[in-house]
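Dear support,

Our group has been running a series of protein-ligand predictions, and this particular one with adenosine-5'-diphosphate is the one our PI (initials K.S.) wants archived with full inputs and outputs. We had some confusion internally about which version of the output was final, so please treat the block below as the authoritative record. The input we submitted was:
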Amino acid sequence: MTTILSGIQPSGLLHLGNYFGAIRQHIALQEEAGEHFYFIADYHALTTQRNPQLMRELVWETAVTYLACGLDPAKAVLFRQSDVPEVTEIAWLLATVTGMGLLERAHSYKDKLANQIKPSVGLFTYPVLMAADILAYDSTLVPVGKDQVQHVEMTQDMAGYFNGAYGDVFQRPEMRLEETENMQKVPGLDGQKMSKSYGNDIWIFEEGKKLKKLCGRIVTDSRPPEEPKDPEGIFLFDLLALFLEPMELEQWKEKVRQGGEGAPGYGHLKMRLKDAMENYFAPARARRAEYLTHPEKVEEVLQAGAKKARQRAQQVRDRALRACGLR
Ligand code: ADP
Ligand code: TRP
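Confirmed final output from the archive:
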């Protein structure tokens, strides 16, 4: 049986980079044979987020975004990490067999130190909790982006240490690297990688005047519309490529290459982007609006998900406790 698991931190309103780089692929996975667990990593988010009100909002927004974008609770188990406290017990068991050296080598930890972030013990042991997330459901496959590869390798190591000490308890998970295939990173308003931390992001449900204003802020140069240009050097086209049919995209590019009288200015292309993006997310935006008027429906999904996830995690925890002589 294939058991696919993935987690996402509720660290902000989800933007176009998150959608095209992660959420869309996550949701597509539910069509594959096997079981599917998706969770909102709120325990993990505590390593960086200390505002309780914001935490509640972001957990809710993350859940609603997945549901609005098409996650089907009949196919996939959606839940909050903290609704399954067994993962923290499993994390403790893993911590007792894991050497300091393994965690000291974590890139994510070293990067945070290099960025002068004062580390908490929780930040240091972040990979142990992540390993517990994965092992708690007997996951066989974890789709991840490049930045999480090392964490899954560490999970494989920790499963190996525990099994080495106590026999076959944990299922060794495999990972699947989600290439953002032929698509490079989604650029932000300034042309750098779109990221919450750079403040150059566009929330997927942005609309109307605010979206218009954001699109207006996309950085372009001061060449006039008539001047023939190479569209490859204009990252506004990378954003348009996310939404337009290939034919339409090519037509715009050709007009820009030609220049002259009929060539569109950047302002024109930005407004095309705004309309296309609004249109693309319209069905999901409508579903989100429905959930906004019935927030209890989101809670119902999360509670039902938690129940299923907990059942599995309890079995795995009990197996682990027995193996090490605590039962
Ligand atoms: P942020 O950089 O905004 O903090 P995260 O690091 O939380 O985003 O990313 C969450 C997921 O979204 C990851 O799987 C990551 O690979 C994906 N992602 C984030 N930004 C982009 C982007 N600009 N292009 C493609 N994928 C992205
Ligand atoms: N660390 C992951 C991230 O920041 C989120 C996460 C937590 C996760 N636990 C997980 C992802 C387990 C996959 C499996 O993106």
